[in-house]
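User:
Note these tokens:
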Amino acid sequence: MQPKIHDPIGPVEKQSSNVGKLFLASVAALYFELLVIRYIGTEIRVFTNLKNIPLMACFFGLGLGMILGRPRRRLALLFPLIGLILFSVTRYAQWLHLANVDLMWTYDLSQNVAGSLTRRVISTFEFIGLVMGLSALIVSFFVVLGGFVGAIVGSPFAVLTGVAGFFGAINWVVKNAFRSE
């Protein structure tokens, strides 16, 4: 009688099914990553100059999603709503007066915003709120996509990949936070 050998990878049928699912999830993540970066940069002036912010938010969300694994049911159900909000805000940015929220090209309070210091401070908070709000939407959108990829790949590799993406995004922020050009 032959001893049973444990196959850690699984049957061939399961492998081919997972490869197809992984391919589709990866293509969807790449497609939406490019769509978000290009579309937001086109519609909202702030992101014309700060294209790396949506990119970093995409990587951060994908990495966090891979670490967390399969998205929770509530988050998976909210995924279409998050996408609708993200793309609607971007589409109607001109109508919502988001296209012109900017501190111009030097991003400081000294010379760009006409008016009093109070108006300059308000403009700064509008700028920060827009960048942080859209970044939060992007991260939450990509957490779900990263969760699908992480669930397909499997726990150890997904966590390692997710940690690399997560800390890569954090490293970019820390590296560029105090950099002046």
Q: What stands out?
A: Residues 117-153 form the longest helix (37 residues). The two ends are 72 Å apart (CA to CA).
